[in-house]
Amino acid sequence: PEDPEFQYVSTALQGVDRISRIVEVTLNFSRPTVPDIQDVDLNSLIPQSLELCSSVIKRKEITVDLAFNENLPKISADSKQLQQVFINLITNAADAIKSKGTITISTYIEKGSRVNDGEYAIVSIEDTGAGIPPDDLPKIFNPFFTRKADGTGLGLPITQRILHNHSGIIDVESTVGQGTTFYIKIPVPVYK
Question: Is the dihedral of CA 156, 157, 158, 162 positive or negative?
């Protein structure tokens, strides 16, 4: 550590770690994965996902509010892939909050808008962060689009692809200076 070159080596190693992460995320994005479909309880999966994001949340003064529909039916999904969706969105929410704010995660049921549609299990993840500028909103699901200095721009495209593979939908509402809400909509299976 006392060597004058130590700082250069340390900086270079941090750069190598960042490149390694980008390559890993890029490879994961390009590899098609087949979901391992099972019955999933979203109300149990969300707290597990929050636990995995705790280090990001604890870096700031963030309150997490949970509002779960206790009668939310189980869905058919790959729990590991959905956990990745929640981790991506919760991390983004925490990153959007400057130093102090709230992340509210809610679950509820919604009827589809078309005649043939059944019910959807909805998870909304709302933050009181900076919000997304209107010019950026149409681009957020484009691969490699990011405004984060250390971001890869692949979190939201991966999230969208996972939900598409589950016949799900992701919607977003955002107001600059007030925050952002992502809505994850996953069909509730109809058992006969």
Answer: positive
